[in-house]
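Tutorial handout. Part one gives the primary structure; part two gives the three-dimensional structure as tokens.
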Amino acid sequence: MEDPVVILDAVSASYEGERIATLHDVTMHVREAERVAIVGPNGAGKTTLLEVINGLLPFTAGEVCVFGRPVARDGHRLRARIAYMAQELFFPPSTPFLVRDVVMAALYAQMGPLRWPSRDDRTRVNGAMAMVGISMLAGRPIGRLSGGQQRKVLLARALAQGSRLLLLDEPTANLDPDAKLEVARIVREVERELAATALVVSHEGGPLLDDAERLVRIEAGRITHDGQMAELRGDLIATGV
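Part two.
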């Protein structure tokens, strides 16, 4: 049996200046190609969990490994292999970067310094944009796109990068129902194409949660439920996400 893609072992973490830990003694293993829904009330520690896995927030106790490597030591290298969609990431209208350049930026860490994109790099970017249905937006500034379109750009970026670990923080928040369904469809396509593992934070139900094999509920920085979605669906309906 292969080692888990993500391992958290008795992890605690807190933001600088806070006396009370945001995560408390969290232990969780995530296997390859698994989709895990992370739910819980606001301030429970869901975003903190993703930041710790991505090496953006140092942890104060425990051990975190991604792809078999310790995040505390190799976090900056591992981030080149992880697609992280932050909850508040939104490009204002004045953002000048073209869609194709935003998607291409995912490859810069793999290219190394002082190297221009190759024909293969451009082919990967064009293929990723085509797969998520944004080829016609390639020459437009990302700031001029809708929220749903911007999320599609970020998913195309993950696909071009070849990320096999997706950390998605509220990827369908503030989208209309049709856009939610479209983003969920694209996430499924990316998962299938890359055999990717996905951790999806959400405060609402919907297709991304419905498709998850596993649900983890966090309350006050602690995991209170961790099991197969079918086993926990009744509890989810009774208590709310």
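Part three, for discussion. The beta strands are 6-13, 23-30, 35-39, 59-66, 69-70, 82-85, 165-169, 197-201, 214-219, 222-228. The first strand starts at residue 6 and ends at 13.
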